[in-house]
Structures are given as C-alpha cells and as structure tokens.
Amino acid sequence: MLKGKRSKRITMFASRKNGFSMPCESSLEKNFCYHLELNEDTKEYRTQGLQFEIEDFKYTPDFILLTHLNTFKIVEIKPKENLKSKELTFRLSRVKAYFEQKNIAFEIVTDEFTNRQPLLSNLIYVYRAAKLPFTKDESQKALELISNLKSLSFEKIRETLHTNELPLLIVEQLVIQGELKVDFNQPISSKTEVFLK
After folding, report:
1. pLDDT tens, 75-97?
2. How many angstroms separate the most distant Cα atoms in the chain?
C-alpha cells in the first residue's frame, strides 16, 4: 500500500496500547512504536494523526503522544544523517517554535535512539507476547507463583509456570503490563534477572 510520496511504503504496527494497528511510514517509526508501547509515561499515541498549517506550509507530525499527565507531545522521527540538511533543520525549527507557542512539547527522535541495541531487540522480544489472549486468572496465578520464588530470572519463572501448566510467554506479557521489570539495556536471556513491580 502506498501513501503520499511514492517512496513511502506503509507498514502496520499492531498496538496493544491503542487497541488497533498504527500506520508507519518507515522502519524507524515502527521501531519507535515498540518504545512507546513499553513507555510508562505514554498513555496512547497516534501516527500521522493530524495536519497543521504552519505559516506557508502544512505539517503532519509522525507521532502525537498523550501522556499520563494528559499533556500532548509531538514527535518527529528522522535519520540522524538527514539532520545535516540546513533546509530540514530550519523547517523543523519553525515547527518547534509553532508548537512551543501552543505549549505543546516537540521532540526530534533519530535512529540513534529508535535502533539502539540491545534495547530495541529486547523490546521486540518482549512485545511478541503483547496480543496473546491470557486470562486475568492466569496472570494472577502466575504473579502469585512468581512472588513466592527466591530468585527471579526468565528461566526460573518459566520452570515454575511449566510445572503449574501456565503459558510460558505470560512472563513477557507481565513485563509489558508493568507487573514485572527487566533491564532493557542489557541483552535478555534465560538468565536475565526479573524484578517484581
């Protein structure tokens, strides 16, 4: 499916947080969705949501975020290399000034953030369980069992879940829900330490 310029191919990101799929115009935008899904400050978000008239041009933000403080934030996703363009940086400075006048935060996020490893790989790894249909009872039982363990790692938790005939990927879903915590800046493995909320 094509949108806008011929060079832009749309991919859909299945958002658990928003409850429907989000159109993304680049892999950087799709990767940023993983960050937003596990970002506790972001309540919900939209991609390519609105168009704004800014002086002599129209601007469509890549992302509009709604925070848990009920404030909005506009995010533009760009490869770092593109920011060497004086024309682009001047245009984005005008966009930033426009939103600052309206007391709306504006941020440019580059591939240095969206693609940072091992963070991105970890987010993708955990997010694979986002849409699995675990019941509330399964989640509660898993949390009770996990809270009784002396040491918490993916391996130990999965052993306990397996013994109690619970789905193994419920660990990842509990991380997505914020019930369990992991250090996303270290590679996730079976030995990764897991913390209760």
Report:
1. 999 999 999 999 999 999 999 99
2. 64
Long-range contacts of residues 181-190, Cβ cutoff 8 Å, at least 24 apart: 182/122, 182/126, 184/38, 184/118, 184/119, 184/122, 184/123, 185/118, 185/119, 186/118, 187/118, 187/121, 187/122, 188/118, 188/121, 188/122, 188/125, 188/126, 188/154, 189/154, 190/153, 190/154, 190/155, 190/158
Contact between 81 and 52 under an 8 Å Cβ cutoff? The reply is no
Residue indicated by tokens 């950087």: 28
Which percentage of the chain shows pLDDT scores above 90?
A: 91
pTM of the model: 0.91
pLDDT tens digits along 130-144: 989 999 999 999 999
pLDDT category at 151 given cuts 50, 70, 90 is confident
Q: Is 187 within 8 Å of 122 (Cβ atoms)?
A: yes
